[in-house]
Amino acid sequence: MSTSLITGATAGIGHEYAVQLAARGDDLVLVARDAARLEEVATALRRAHQVEVEVLVADLTDRDDLARVEARLADRDRPVDLLVNNAGFGLKKRFLDNTADDETAMLEVLVTAVLRLSHAALGAMAERGHGGIIDVSSVAAFLPRGTYSAAKAWVNSFSEWAHLEYKSRGVTVMALCPGFTKTEFHERMQVTRGDGFLWLDADFLVRTSLEDFDKGRAYSIPGAQYKTIVTLTRAIPNRVLRLTQNLGR
């Protein structure tokens, strides 16, 4: 029996990971800030899939909360086989219109939490000789779109390096780079969600990413349209890319 730990597990991509991994038979450790919603999701998953579901209430901007999640990942007696670093948020305003504290909080979740949780997980996984990490990044990582893109570019670079570094020790690390996805992410930013060809369904996104992960890939970029966009970024100068509208999760 495998155990998967998912951050940001009560909504959007994180919730879809919980559903699909539970359907595979994985026991789950769900991490999020909202205790009531965590319990609601956990109860539904236990009932639907007959798996064990543990909940950890944690705000990943709080170092004490983050340390509790790190400790759970590092627990050799209760091994976690797959870590999904999914938790995240974006800021609607431009850089100088946000406070430095808001920008720092975003980096705490998108970068610091990914680093610290990966450090805890990789230590235990490399020691056992098996395990995996999926870091939810973004197509935005390939585009010059402010601090969100910069943070996701760090996630890509870190994930690619870890994939190469720990593959020989039985650990697969993969960056998932979604484009626009139909979740609550944009609603929380008060950004209108569309329904055009650029918008992906979360179930397709997660299903594709798990297929790519099972194949041992370093990157998963679901959707032909986003594979094309990423390919073009390698050939188009940054001054042209700056004209591209914000592409996120």
Automatic annotation (TrEMBL):
Domain Ketoreductase positions: 2-202
Gene3D superfamilies with a match to the protein in the record: NAD(P)-binding Rossmann-like Domain (3.40.50.720)
Keyword Oxidoreductase recorded: yes
Keyword Lipoprotein: no
The entry's keywords: Oxidoreductase
Pfam families on file: adh_short (PF00106)
InterPro entries: KR_dom, NAD(P)-bd_dom_sf, SDR_fam, VLCFA-Steroid_DH
PANTHER family with a match to the protein in the record: RH59310P (PTHR43899:SF13)
Family: Belongs to the short-chain dehydrogenases/reductases (SDR) family.
Name of this protein: SDR family oxidoreductase
